[in-house]
Amino acid sequence: MKKVIFRHSISRQLLLSVAFLFTFSLFAHAQDQTAQDTTAQAESGQAAETDAGAGAAAASLGDAAAGKELFNSLCAACHKPYSNSIGPALSGATDRHEMEWLYDWIQNSAALIASGDAEANEVYNEWNQTAMPAFPQLTESDIDNILAYVEQPKPEPTAATTGAAQSGEGEGSGGVSVNIILGILAFVLVLLLVVLFLVNKTLRNFASASGIAIPEKPKTKPLYQSFVENQFLLVVTSIFVLLTVGYFSYGFLMQIGVDQGYQPIQPIHYSHRIHAGDNQIECKYCHSSARVSKHSGIPSLNVCMNCHKAIAEVSPETATEEYSKEFYDKEIAKLYDATGWDPASRTYSGEEKPVKWVRIHNLPDFAYFNHSQHVSVAGIECQKCHGPIEEMEIVYQNAPLTMGWCVNCHRETNIRIEGNEYYEKIHEELSKKYGVEELTAAQMGGLECGKCHY
Length: 454
Known about the structure:
Layout: H1 2-59, H2 64-75, H3 93-96, H4 99-107, H5 109-114, H6 118-126, H7 140-150, H8 159-174, H9 178-209, H10 223-229, H11 231-254, H12 272-278, H13 283-286, H14 301-308, H15 325-339, E1 341-342, E2 347-348, H16 371-377, H17 382-386, H18 403-412, H19 421-434, H20 442-446, H21 449-452
Antiparallel strand pairs: 1-2
Helix pairs in contact: 1-9, 2-7, 14-15
């Protein structure tokens, strides 16, 4: 009996050790959290002081909100607040030039240059003698508002750190880290297993010392042997296995050539969410050949540069938790490298590099599909086949593009004849034949094999 009491005392000591470890972990975590909070408050205080100083300087010039509207409508085509574009970055203009000079320059730069002003001619020559439009309608108050907007401190991207901050707040608000709690629970579980092993060993030793025989479990026949000896179960299982293999084999073979959900990574990240969604650029602006050709075509980089000659970086609001502003800016830099565009001198170097785009939607060679027939004649929206393209950050194949999928669409889609003389006569004759007011593509011959296979 003394051995049993001794085992019990060991488990009691282990439990006391767990309690001590838990208390120490709480104390250490509280100290770490206090130190982190103090550091975060100090950093946020310093950042607030810096931003407050810059914000106060901008506020002394004018109304930044009104200046933003004027900047976007008059200045944004050639200037950016914090980086060079067709013209120089406007942030810091009040430090580089006198206010009176800025008034004269913005209202009529050509007259200031013609007067022989040395500072005006220096700026004019520095920017390749690019003429700046005159804005005589702007008052000095309007100019102050614009300068107040561009002199605001540059906003820092916060989307990338939002998730980390929220997770940190979630751990701190609970008081105890989840990892510490899980670690303690795992330790307690191991401790219980050890205690059970020791108790079992003690009871066996006690029974052996007392002369008590421990009955052994009788040996049973293995399960696989019983299964093999049962012919009915063997036949039923064989049939079930054959049917299962046939079912999954058929399903696998039917997926050959079906790439629904295919989402490759492109050499230059192009966000349809930003272009087609946020900026509402029409699909056919880039894929212009979809109106008149069998193929929608891959837009040339010249189409991209129509806009990106003046857009070298995205706005901070464009960034997401997954893709930061710095990420998007680097992708624009890849475009410049491929086209040989130097944003500093705003000239082409002539050193172009091909972009190896990865094709996503690809029909078999024996299937004929004409984009112009569906886009221009039938008036089908791009989203009908390609899904919510304006919401896709990375484009994927939305539809299966199988024969059955196309046939179902032809059976369900009515022919649009408004303003389409090609279909008026045939629609009138076929509608009488079928006794309907509207014809589907299938009733117009859309199910004939030769329409897509010839």
